[in-house]
Amino acid sequence: MPKTSTHDLTRGAIAPTLLVFALPILAGNVLQSLNGSVNAVWVGRFLGEEALVATANANNIMFFLLGSVFGIGMAATILVAQAIGARDPVQARRVIGSSATFFGAISLLVAAAGLPLARHILTWMGTPDASLPLAEAYLQVIFLAVPFLYMFAFISAVLRGAGDTRTPFVFLALVVVIDIIVNPVLIFGLGPFPEMGIAGSAGATLVANACSLAALVAWLRWRRHPLWIPRGELRAYVPDFAIVRALVVKGVPMGLQMILVSLAMLVMISMVNAYGVDTASAYGATLQLWTYVQMPAMAMGAACTSMAAQNVGAGRWDRVDGTMRVGVAFNFLLTGLLIAPLLLFGESILSLFLPPGSPSIAAGQHINLVAIWSFLFFGVNFVVSGVVRSTGAVVPPLLILVFALWGIRVPFANLLQPALGADAIWLSFPVSALCAMLLSLAYYRWGQWREARMLAGDRDTDAMAIPAEVPAQPPAPVADPCPRTRAADAVAGS
Question: Which residue ranges run through the membrane (predicted)?
Fold first, then answer.
């Protein structure tokens, strides 16, 4: 098991520090995607193409649900990372307590509201009639799992803000192991369990996340993690207005980015559904592969946000710029290494998710050839936006995304379909991603993001900057006012 501790990201060579910090995030993303792919194999190969289309539609909604609270978690993560960089663990615990209460309440409201609305949402998306009952059964169970999904992601993100990526990886691996084992048991009703069909796949997600979340919380308390809120400091869970205001003011624009991405994906899949089950199932299978392709960018973006935020808190602006450059380089290298085999062996890989001889296999390979290049541009945008957000500059990345998705991608796909057919949908991905990348780089170069602050009244980080030529000192040990109950509340971000 990992050591539960915070890690100083303001020292050491940037490239190896960032890579070592990002690798557990990347490995966790691989595990999550592998888990989703294994589930897709069970569903697509044994329950049919209609069931695969159902999960593709429902999973887009789940992504939207996670995105709806993504900003709150990310704002908490940045605040924690800045506090760690500034050597202020008391502020870190204060942020965690307020964020945990606020975040938990929202997750319960989302779950309660989603259950009765599941079928209406799927109908609005244009889910094919043959897949609609299956998608509804799957989505209703997912809504029950939302609080566990949210809180597990929240804790993992706060730990990343504190510089710990190993602990989230270990417990995410536990989620995957449980999910893979329980999935066929609930789908087919093995042993004493009833046969649940597609709802069993969602039920395995619920069981796996609930068990791993309980184990993670117990582990952090037992090991006395430096950010655990001890019994004598439970007042930290009473929301602090200034922190809640920062979570809302800074978190809502970041959350809107995820919501806009999710809404755009819902619009795109609605367009795809109009071409029938073969095209829709091909798109659903390619989405499984795309989750792998975007993983290096997402891992690097998350790692760069935490690393940059700690250095913002420490006033190390030279390392903030270095983090961006190294992150972009790693994105091109790692994403390119994943794109190549998918172009060379795409049809064989797609056949894992689709029945043998299905026309959807060739359609899926065509989609890859046209659209998969977009993830190189997407990765640069993800890294640059992550670094920019680390100071609290959250609105410009939102505006760039709005323009790229709703000013370019959706209109391009919609307006050019009469001339290009479904190819207009696939081409819209690289075109919009390229525009977003260019705009993000321009804002990074000429924008005023370095002047932004997460909390109103924060002292200027330039004033506490550590000169680049003077090595940063390791954080001093934190005096524990309550030695028996020391440890950190690991609750945050998405």
Answer: 12-31, 61-84, 96-117, 137-157, 169-190, 196-220, 255-277, 289-309, 330-354, 366-384, 391-412, 424-444
pLDDT digits (tens, 9 = 90+) for 426-455: 999 999 999 999 999 999 999 999 988 888
Residues of the chain predicted below pLDDT 50: 1, 4, 460-494
Q: What is the 3-state secondary structure (H, E, C) of 407-420?
A: HHHHHHHHHCHHHH
Helix axes 49-68, 89-124, angle to 10 degrees: 140
Instruction: Assign 310 to helix, strand or coil.
Output: helix
Collapsed DSSP state (helix, strand, coil) of residue 49 = helix
Residue found by looking up tokens 């950190």 in the block: 488
Q: What is the mean pLDDT of the chain?
A: 81
Whole-number Å distance between alpha carbons of 462 and 466: 9
Torsion-angle region of 53 (φ positive above 0: left; ψ -120 to 50: alpha; else: beta):
alpha
Which amino acid, one-letter code, is at 287?
Answer: L
What's the CA gap between 476 and 473, in Å, rounded?
A: 8
- Give CA–CA dist 165/148, Å, rounded: 19
Distance CA 359, CA 455 (A): 54
Tokens representing residue 248 in the block: 């809302």
| Cβ contact 271:414 at 8 Å | yes
Token pair belonging to 358:
């299905």
Q: Pick the closest to residue 173 from 34, 321, 368, 74 (CA basis).
A: 34
pLDDT at res. 5: 57
Cα gap 123→451, rounded to integer Å: 45
Backbone region of residue 240 per phi and psi (left: phi > 0; alpha: psi in -120 to 50; beta: other values): beta
Cβ neighbourhood burial of 309 (10 Å; 0-12, 13-18, 19+): buried
Instruction: Indicate the domain borders of the chain.
Output: 14-458
**Numbers of helices and strands, H then E, in the chain:** 18, 0
Predicted confidence (pLDDT) per residue in 91-124, tens digit: 888 888 888 888 888 888 888 888 888 888 888 8
- Prediction pTM value: 0.75
**What SS3 state is found at 243?**
helix
Return the biggest CA–CA distance within the chain: 70
Q: Which residues of 235-272 are buried (b: 16+ CB within 10 A; e: fewer)?
A: ebbebbeebbebbebbbbbbbbbbbbbbbbbbbbbebb
The stretches of 69-197 forming alpha helices (DSSP H) are 70-85, 89-124, 132-161, 166-188
* The pLDDT value given to residue 396: 93
| Contacts for 478-481: CB closer than 8 Å, 24+ residues apart | 478/89, 478/226, 481/232
